[in-house]
């Protein structure tokens, strides 16, 4: 398989523009990206067993340029679900973020629900993708979970990768698999063992205080490592949630179908009341930073670096984002963002009208497909 550095798209560009943050909170080491206007409530992306913070790079680049703040995390070495709840809360406190919107895939979606259940005041909305409500099925399928912490790294990697569909893929799905395989190679034995332990501990998500109207379920309709029965249970539990079904995309639609995923994420954030700060979005600078500051920062305003800000970034790694020195393409890029945003509002209006008219199943996919097409240009 291809190496991660040769994966398609703009990953190399992303790495050159978006700084990686590392922070120690107690005994936990957190690795994460934090990009976009700092006074916007963040969307926090939580990956599955095989994922890292890097797998959401397409969402970080797209949404930050739309005026949203995106934080993508690695799951640190955490061995039980109570530990996860406390560790994640301490992480949010450390980066001075109080209210969050969570986007979780697979194991990340399960952990997102657990956190929303036990810390309801902090979670404002959920986007759940190819995930599940309880781990009993995985626990039964992994009788050797009690010795997983003693297992060698190569065995853990083989077990994780065996869950990824192995067969003929269309090019974008094949590339997404190659990228994730490259990310798995970067994980330590403890990383792998702790994630498998979280996935195998028999725990179920309880009732959420969060209304279904603040939940979006985004599943792929072709195949993935999560059995369809478990995904159906999620849909039944949150019957009032918005459905965003992708016809194809495999296990990693955020990489293989980024245009559709990004659109659904943007629609979700708009629907739950997150206001994008498009006026704070700057054109990409030549020194390798972007989308993290505003015109106020150019005038010396320090409010985005103020630790007292509810959604501020403490900047533990000492990395600062420098504003662009202005370029000829700045106004053109801004106009494109305005046009794209206008198209999105048209989509939302059409979507609302169709729902109110109880549009037929043959009309709705057609409208969604065409609205997606005009917005991803």
Automatic annotation (TrEMBL):
GO terms for cellular component: cytoplasm. The keyword Metal-binding does not apply. This is Maspardin. Residues 284-334 are annotated as: Disordered. Signal peptide: none annotated. Keywords: Cytoplasm. Its main location: cytoplasm. Residues 41-141 form the AB hydrolase-1 domain. Gene3D superfamilies: alpha/beta hydrolase. Residues 295-306 have a biased composition (Basic and acidic residues). It is found in: Cytoplasm. Transmembrane segments: none annotated. The gene is LOC120275712. Residues 284-294 have a biased composition (Polar residues).
């Amino acid at each position: 398989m291809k190496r991660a550095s040769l994966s398609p798209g703009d990953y190399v560009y992303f790495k050159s523009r978006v700084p990686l943050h590392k922070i120690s909170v107690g005994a936990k080491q957190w690795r994460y990206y934090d990009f976009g206007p700092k006074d916007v409530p963040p969307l926090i992306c939580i990956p599955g067993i095989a994922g890292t913070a890097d797998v959401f790079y397409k969402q970080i680049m797209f949404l930050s340029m739309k005026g949203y703040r995106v934080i993508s995390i690695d799951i640190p070495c955490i061995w039980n679900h109570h530990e996860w709840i406390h560790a994640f809360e301490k992480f949010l406190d450390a980066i001075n973020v109080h209210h969050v919107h969570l986007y979780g895939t697979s194991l990340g979606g399960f952990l997102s629900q657990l956190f929303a259940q036990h810390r309801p005041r902090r979670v404002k909305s959920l986007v759940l993708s190819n995930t599940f409500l309880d781990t009993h099925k995985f626990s039964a399928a992994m009788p050797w979970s009690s010795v997983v912490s003693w297992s060698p790294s190569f065995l853990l990697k083989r077990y994780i990768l065996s869950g990824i569909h192995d067969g003929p893929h269309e090019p974008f799905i094949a590339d997404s698999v190659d990228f994730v395989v490259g990310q798995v190679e970067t994980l330590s034995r403890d990383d792998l063992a702790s994630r498998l332990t979280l996935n195998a501990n028999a725990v179920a998500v309880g009732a959420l205080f969060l209304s279904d109207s603040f939940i979006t379920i985004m599943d792929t309709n072709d195949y993935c490592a999560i059995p369809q029965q478990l995904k159906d249970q999620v849909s039944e539990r949150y019957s009032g949630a918005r459905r965003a079904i992708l016809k194809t995309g495999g296990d990693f639609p955020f990489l293989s179908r980024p245009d559709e995923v990004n659109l659904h994420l943007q629609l979700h954030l708009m629907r739950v009341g997150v206001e994008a700060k498009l006026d704070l979005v700057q054109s990409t600078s030549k020194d390798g930073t972007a989308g993290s500051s505003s015109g106020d920062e150019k005038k010396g305003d320090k409010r985005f670096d103020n630790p007292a800000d509810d959604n501020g970034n403490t900047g533990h790694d000492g990395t600062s984002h420098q504003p662009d020195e202005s370029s000829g393409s700045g106004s053109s890029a801004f106009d494109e963002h305005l046009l794209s945003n206008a198209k999105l509002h048209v989509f939302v209006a059409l979507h609302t009208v169709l729902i109110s008219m109880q549009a037929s199943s043959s009309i709705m996919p057609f409208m969604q497909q065409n609205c997606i097409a005009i917005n991803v240009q």
